[in-house]
Amino acid sequence: MIHVKFFASVRERVGIGEISLPMPEGGATVEEVLALAEGEVGVVLQGAHLLAAVNLRHVPFSDVVRDGDEVAFFPPVTGG
Questions:
Q1: I need a surface site. Which of 34, 41, 46, 56 has the fewest CB within 10 A?
Q2: Which pLDDT value is given to residue 77?
Q3: Pairing verdict, β 64-65 and 28-29
């Protein structure tokens, strides 16, 4: 299983904070996990300004996800 979490405005847009997805046979990248999550929640997030983390570490969308990983999607954050 892949544990997917949504934070801040992404969570508001999706309407839930987290989902679990079965690990695709042959593995998946963060980008592919996002596509699977979109299909599960029925909301398109591709094209939105998003950042991703795998197991609490910021990663590019090309990073490989492993079974049991936690993948988080969130908007860029600015301070003031």
A1: 56
A2: 78
A3: antiparallel
For the chain, what is the total number of helices (H) and then of strands (E)? 2, 7
* Cβ atoms of residues 73 and 50 within 8 Å: yes
Neighbours of 56 (CB within 10 A): 7
- Over residues 46-68, mean pLDDT: 93
Distance CA 42, CA 45 (A): 10
Tokens for 17, please give them: 């904070």
Helices (H), the chain: 8-14, 30-41
Burial class (CB in 10 A: 0-12, 13-18, 19+), 14: buried
State the pTM of this model.
0.91
DSSP state of 17: S
